Amino acid sequence: MAEQLKDLADDRALLGRTSTAERVSDILRSRIAEGYFPPGTRLSEDSIGGALGVSRNTLREAFRLLTHERLLVHELNRGVFVRVLTVEDVEDIYRTRRLVECAVVRGLGRPPYGLDGLAGAVALGRTAAREGDWKAVGTANIHFHRELVALAASERTDELMRSVFAELRLAFHVVDEPQQLHEPYIARNVAILEALQSGDRQKAESLLAGYLDDSLERVVEVYRRRVGEDG
To answer: Which of 64, 79, 221, 228 is the residue whose CA sits 20 to 30 A from 184?
Structure first.
């Protein structure tokens, strides 16, 4: 046992590196979500490492984590880039959302439900819309759906959908029509919230399914055109 413990102690340094890499990946994930690094952007190890004050090895580990989440892609002899989704990627993202989000609503059990998070996201979206900040409306919309998924009280589901929603933001940045994309769904979020507040899971699930189907159609229509133009 003493020898095993010695080997384990030798691994202590890995904890610090892993923790730092995870923190760096959190920072980069947020920046990518905000559009600071748009899809297709090449990420410079020297520039980013210097800005964050982290080693090349730490940064490469952070890149590896984000590549695993499908936010980055490594191209041989070219470097690391923010991923550009295909139309098929977008369709698969929405397929996953429909499977998970509708299942969460279906499995809620008997009311009342803890809906403060959803209500807060709706309020944030309405405020942002009044101020004409449509990117903030998009952020509030993602927050609404993350809060909806959180109703399942499942860490695994939260982790899965965190990655899915991060990928979704990549598509939104390519579409780049935030008002047209997000404005129609402010009222639809309200309708879903009100259905859950009244305890009507079936109505909430139906509204959500229609919402996701319509959103997919809208996003794919514009995304296909934009990706084609860029190509």
So the answer is: 228
- What is the C-alpha to C-alpha distance for residues 152 and 109, in angstroms, rounded to an integer? 10
Helix-helix angle 2-10:12-34, to 10 degrees? 40
List residues bridging with 81 in a β-sheet. 42, 73
Cβ neighbours, 10 Å, residue 146: 17
Tell me the pTM.
0.84
Residue-wise pLDDT for 86-104, tens only, equals 999 999 999 999 999 999 9
The rounded distance, in Å, linking the Cα atoms of 201 and 106 is 6
Q: Environment class of residue 134 by beta-carbon count within 10 Å: exposed (0-12), middle (13-18) or buried (19+)?
A: middle
